[in-house]
Amino acid sequence: MTQEDFVKIKDWFKLYTAQFHSNDEDFQRNIELKIAHSYRVVENVSDLIQSIDLSKKDHLVAETAALLHDIGRFRQFEQYGTFSDKKSVNHALLSVKVIKDKELIEHLEAKEQKKILAAIYNHNKKSIPENLNNEEALLLKILRDADKLDIWKIVTDYYCNEETNSNNALQLDLLDDPSINPVNSKDILNERMVDLNNLKTLNDFKLLQVGWVYDLNFKRTFEILYERNYLDEIFKTLPNIDQITVIKEKIYSYIKEQINFRE
Questions:
Q1: C-beta of residue 262 within 8 angstroms of C-beta of residue 222
Q2: Which of 83, 189, 193, 257 satisfies CB 3.0 to 4.6 Å to 211 for a cystine?
Q3: Which tens digit of pLDDT belongs to each residue from 101-112?
């Protein structure tokens, strides 16, 4: 893969996403949110790669996967009016379908195509599949970390301005209720990620986002997360109760351990 290949894919991305422009303010806001998200995930990938020994070609492959990982989101939102896969379709699978239908990466080497599609297809799964080879697994880890970093940015920006900028699409249409499913608290305290099937309220969704720390793969990711204070902003919006205090202490202890002990 060459820099010229990546530029052509970026040009295609710009033209493709422009097709979803709408005069409906709420619709357009969510389309623009996903466009900006895709570009920032590319930036996060570039940051993470500085700490990983990758060739220039692999760097471009990773940036391509980052740019296209949510390309199915646009069709998803157009057709279903939601970003909830549970209420619509698997957006990762839809992203792969769009890429294949448009024959977007068919000019790349077969090995590069396989890595990009594997990363995109698996980027939203709860864990990394065991059937990937080492190169595929590495690319997937980079993409998943970069994606989570920007989702944290998006949701913390939203939670800080929620009263004046309500957006059900970002809340997955969950109720903004003070209650918390105790199963989710137990999972986090036992260093397990929250299960999507156990989400009942927006607070449960916030705990799911907090629990993503257990799925991070690189020291640099933990450093960025700590530097940008994303989790602080999420915790500020959760109930001021002992249960949340204990979770916060557990999460920050885990993050510091990872920064200190990872190479």
A1: yes
A2: 193
A3: 999 999 999 999
